Amino acid sequence: MTYSRKLSPIERYYISCDKRTFPFATPCLNQMTLEGRGNIDERAWADAVRVASQANPGSRVVLKGHLGFAKWVDSGKTAPFRVVNGGDWNGQSDVGAPFLNDPLPAREGPTCEVLLAKCTTRHYIIFRSHHGAMDGRGTQHFADDVFRVLRGQPPIGENNNLSDLELSETLTEARSELITDEVTAPTGTPKGNNAERIWLRRTVKGKFSKVLARVAISIANSTRRHSDTAVRFQLPVDMRARIDGLRSTANLSGGLVMGVNPDTTIEQWQHTIKDNLKHLREAQIPRFMKFVPVRLLCWISLAMMQRSNEKLAQKRMISGRYRTSGILSNLGLVPVDKYQGGGFITDSIFFIPPDFDTTAYFLTITGTREGVEFVLRMPRFLASEGRIEKALDDIEYDLQQSTRSTPDAQTKESSKKQLVTS
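^ Peptide synthetase, sequence as received from the core. Prediction below:
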């Protein structure tokens, strides 16, 4: 039977962000990026991607149908393996990497691909997926299978076609509270109207513990230098762990909204997350409008959703007020040694945040054997005048300072089976 699954309201929102006229674009992308070197066997890589794609039909889906009848359907076409000349790109920002903006159109496909960027000093393997079709963990699951094949092992594939909404409803009947636009961005007020969204990477070397809590408190402290509004973050949460043995590339992320008070401690933050997860709050159906249930989004045209999204982005740019201060996506400790094969030697791994034009601040956090990789995406009107660099400077400084008393601390919580991730 052909693999298919219903398009959920959240996935529909991600698709509504697509630019379907020239210049085409798919802003809401997952891009798991492996930085490394070696003499890459392109044929072996193409074969491995083909085998892994067959075992994971979610990597081959395209959108079929319209409105509430829409669903993801296996196209039967393998996720492509593409090679591009990356020139002098160094993996530190979006500058010099136009291939990262290549669209993955939902209806035409592909919605997933593996990109090899051959650059002057380094090479990059980038697992790219439409966020409507996959989430960060789903993309990583597919990458894991590609490397299994490269090592001569069989792929484990996927065994489930639940959507995020269907999975949530199997876990809880609760609905989340409506959250309004009342908080400011961590870097202060908008300056100008350049809404182009850029990203910057920062590698912090060392061994750290409780990274997510430390980073959240650091950003909150920085935010309060500009504003006295509340500070709260959205944390993507992988719901796969709620069902034993569930294997899926689908977009199965829930979410928590976590506040940070001036006196919040690391221990309090950790305790609150555990309590939220204990009560399955990451699976609560989100509310974005006061009187409109989230399921109704499936019956609103994509064009209307896109116009609404553009108006909201404009409103937030003018007002400087947002639903959350930012999104913090913690991928935990990623074992770099596992990602070797086909002549490619991985030295580090980072995740490029999706491009949400209504979001003030999106930070991905990835632990590696050398330290922590941070990638921060922001609109220029919030990143200008050195503010994006300063934001990463503050995180690095606070992280180093907070762990000086425990220099041998390991990212133990990152090596465990984590829920809080994209």
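The radius of gyration is 20 Å.
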